[in-house]
Amino acid sequence: MIPTIIHEKALSLAMRVRDEVQPLCDSVEIVGAVRRIEAQIGEIELVAIKARNSEKEWHRLAWSLAGADGDVLGMGAQVCRIILRRSKIPLNIWFADHGVMGDLVVPTIPGNWGAMMISKTGPESHLRMIEETAAAMGWSWRPSRGLIIPGEGDRVDIVSASEQAIYERLGLPFTPPFERA
Q: Which domains are delineated in the chain?
């Protein structure tokens, strides 16, 4: 059975982690089931933009967050995975990058913050709706990149810097996280 905690405890824990992580970030926000205000939470998730030159500090912080009885499952360019053993709740910190999307470095494209906020807030049914709406317009939705709109020739527009920009381009009203189904 997957352990869960009530929303209030999860929110308190997520806010504490966010506050501890903040000094190492240009930006950090709580996402996932906590952001959707679900009653039972099985995972704490945050999206962050790491400050430059913070790798050593991130490794120290990850072990500090895990605690003496916790474990750091992985620390990479895209995610930091920690098991908080005391509560047995997984903690994932997803890293959004300005201009870096997977292996592709495109400095003229805004960061993928909005795309990461939508994709990591979920839920899956909401992401399917966004993908289907984009497909109906001849576009595509890539959770790690954003809304991809073919242009003339080889030109491609990517809308991903903010959640509002993505919804607006799709002709959809912004849906607050707690209403996403």
A: 5-95 (3.30.460.10), 101-179 (3.30.210.10)
